[in-house]
Amino acid sequence: MTGETIFHPDFRAEPYWWDAAPPEEARDEPLPASVDLLIIGSGFAGLSAALEAARGGARAAVLDAGPLGGGASSRSGGMVSSGQKLVLTAALDGLPAAEREAALEDSQATFDFLKDLVAREALDADLQLCGRFFGAFAPAHLATLRRNAETLHCRTGVTIRVLSRAEQREEIGSDYFHGGFVVEDYGGVHPAKLNRALRHAARAAGATLHSHARVLGTGRDGAGHLVRTERGDVHAAHVLYATNGYTDRASPWLHRRVIPVMSYQIATEPLPPGMMDRLIPKRRMVTDSRKELTYLRPSPDGTRLLLGCRPRALGASPEVQTRRMRDRMLRIFPELAPIRITHSWSGYVGMTADRLPHIAEKDGVMHAVGCNGNGVALMTYLGWHAAQLVLGRANRPAFFARPGFPAVPFPARGPWTAPIASAAYHLRDFTANPAEVLAERAGRVPSSSTQSKES
Which of 18, 128, 217, 229 fits a disulfide with 22 by CB distance 3.0 to 4.6 angstroms? Predict the structure, then answer.
């Protein structure tokens, strides 16, 4: 394929989501001299915290180093779940039984919290409770997925349906996967619209939002804090870092505890009428079982297909990444061969050493980070709960606010982390399904008639 047939004439290297809800410039309003709660980061966590604090009568302000909503909250895939991610990654396996139950309770509460928040605040976020299909990338993965499905049902009570390869056509118009399972209690949002709606709600509640106000550092100021920014200083009774994958050295303590991992996505041009009905007839969210995770979804209006994957491959340019992702899309859906790409973008996911989210206090400063690739409901919940803790209004303990937030071991904290992880994941995927990995690397795209044989 030539570049002209791959890229739409209106191609943009920015999120598809920004067409409807772009990031916001808010640099003209002066920074407040003092506030009750200063929040660093204008993603889901920061805005949720601002809304909760302002609703409770606190003077709250949000700062961002760039435009409001310009980080990963408006760059994500917009998939929404509750406790499934923690169970499937086995992040809880080493914990005592009581802590596992507390973690799952909190995780499940995040989904309910987001649904209630959207309804209560009338947020324009395109929330759709559409379910999710987990596809087996390799034949041997189906047995693992079956065990995962049983574990999910037992631990979380969600509705699960396991499908053979022959049965998966009920959910996805492809023979690429080797069966899988469906979780009904799953959904999707338009992430940039959710961020915009939270900005509006926070402002309406009395919070102030300020873009292009990069924080340089924080220090004690009597009983409170002095926050130094590129636009001046702010005195704050309380400070909350909600920077996740965009954490920098303004907070050295937090910087040692979050690994930024790049995730890439592409969006197609509008599909011909009827095509989405063949590809994803029930408009599910879709994820595979690779270590180098692939995820797909219809756009909220059902007109486009979006595909994402992580982590980033070593040294790949955005153009190369776009072509590789499109090749992967065509391996799954050969029918998309004539369809061009209109958007390609990336964003940082915040990963932690123990693969768990954390609300943590250090030297009087609060931090709410660690989505580990599961951020929409989780980060919105973390911001809300962190604001309650900061202002003394929390009415229940939270597992995510437990003591202990391990630092990332030094050798694992550097520019080499993502490439090394990518190589390790790629090797495991190759071991599981060498024919598919080699075919993808060679850029071979099956036709609809040969897909079943090649996959």
Answer: 18
